[in-house]
What we know:
Elements: H1 2-22, H2 28-61, H3 70-116, H4 118-121, H5 126-138, H6 141-165, H7 170-179, H8 182-217, H9 219-224, H10 228-280, H11 294-335, E1 356-363, E2 373-380, E3 385-389, H12 396-404, E4 411-416, E5 419-420, H13 426-430, E6 433-436, E7 445-446, H14 447-452, H15 460-469, H16 473-476, E8 486-487, H17 496-510, E9 514-518, H18 526-540, E10 544-548, H19 552-555, E11 560-565, E12 568-571, H20 574-582
Parallel strand pairs: 3-10, 3-11, 6-9, 9-10
Antiparallel strand pairs: 1-2, 1-4, 4-5, 7-8, 11-12
Helix pairs in contact: 1-11, 2-3, 2-6, 2-11, 3-5, 3-6, 5-8, 6-11, 7-10, 8-10, 8-11, 10-11, 15-17, 17-18
Amino acid sequence: MQATNQESGRESNREKSRWLKGLIGDEKRWIHFSILAGLFAGLMLILQAYILARSVDATLFHQAQLEDLWGLLALFLVALFLRSIAGVIREWCGQRASVGVRSRLRGELVNRLAHLGPAYTRQQRSGELSSLLMEQVEALDGFIARYLPQMALAVMLPVMILAFVLPINWAASLIFLITAPLIPLFMALVGTRAADANRRNFKALAQLSAYFLDVVQGLGTLKLFSQSKVQKKIIAHNAEEFRLRTMQVLRLAFLSSAVLEFFASISIAVLAVYLGFSFLGFLNFGSWTEQVTLYHALFILILAPEFYLPLRDLGTHYHAKQEAAAAAERIIDLLEEVDRLEQGGPERIQEQPLSLSFEEVSFSYIGQQVNVLEKSSLYVNPGECVALVGPSGSGKSTLLNLLAGFERPSEGVVKVADIALHDLSRDAWMSRVAFVSQHTTLFPGTLRDNLLMANPNASAEALQKACDDAFATEFIERLEKGLDTPVGEAGNNLSGGQIQRLALARAFLKDAPVLLLDEPTASLDKDSEQVILESLKRLCQGRTTLLLTHRPSTMKIANRIYQLSQGKCYEADEPTRIALLKEEL
């Protein structure tokens, strides 16, 4: 069983490595440029080693004077300058690839969350998702910018150095070949432990981020119940645990570096002993000539640390690979999350306005045994406004999520223009729907930016007409900068009624044939409610509308009323309709 688990773990790691390498895409050219720059820097290093060895040998054994070496010294300085430039280019190209990959991946993750919809994100902790998009994507930087180029250089640079050492001394080359595998071997042994530590560290960070955000969002409630100090102690305890886990990762990283340095030093020492004894005449093998000269010994000894340096650097960056593999686990899970609404089906819906229908629909959330909806049916004629009423918790929002495509019914079918919603492409459906919620979200930017989210290509005249129809022009004109007024955090510089009018302006600007309204007049005073209702009457004209509400004043704009109770949905008869319009639920 243990062997099976180990094999499964190795296969999982291989899949993650393949996935990580597959992320590079179009940025692969920058990785190639980084490798070429590294190889060029290696060539300049070999040239520097040759110049130093030749200069020392000429000075000690051939009575060369300083003026005889000016040419070599000038060439040495040129090689040093070119090597420095190549190092900068190598790092820049690696970072360019990393930035491109991480930006693209964050875009894919955000798009994935948008496709999965609110029904998915509500089941997740916001702090964990933020940690995923920021810290865990950021953890890929070292893998892309440094580890991938170093993988190639760890093979190419030692081979390049061997190509220059072998014609001079085959024994030194043999020492290089025997000792070189020790470094990646111990790198892998220590790196396995580091991968496990990184994985635990990312989980701890995600949990800490999620918990901290939950506490911040509920700080007002915690203050009311005098629980803020208790939560402070809990956060401090969790932060300390995270610190300890981080130090464990660092301890393994330093241990790995110490092991790699130790074996590299031992290998260089063995080579130095061989060359020293050969130079003194105690050893007479390895050289293609009669004996090892000072030039040969210096040239090989200068290159020896550089032979092991790419392997040591690979060992250092190997932790970046393990960190990226640990981060990739959650990223892959999100990217592979099954979409609630299938892609495919018709790309356009020809009929307009559209009809909506629920046919014997049942639904229950994961982990719940009782159905929220039980064989419920509802029909909205093209261009008709239907109100859906019911007590809190009866399933109104669930029904709206099903119609928006954020959830899939366990039984029955939801249809749009007689097409099953699961057979319809998401883009085709989302382009036909406008949604107005009781909790409208405004994003950083200006009022104009927030309105144009509904229709980025809208003209200035269309934008102005949408504001007029939503009765939003009246308060926008009073603002100093008008539509260019910056929006505060979550719209805190605007009143609830003003925010709802902006939401209606968005809906007017999108001009979609289907309108979904979720308590659009909730939490508004009577004056604001009257303004919103007048705008709603305009908005619903000629559009297929499903309206969720508790207020009789809002129900009056509906042609028919459905009631939802205990998972059952049925149309209200005339006496029930009259009773509902007289008093609030």
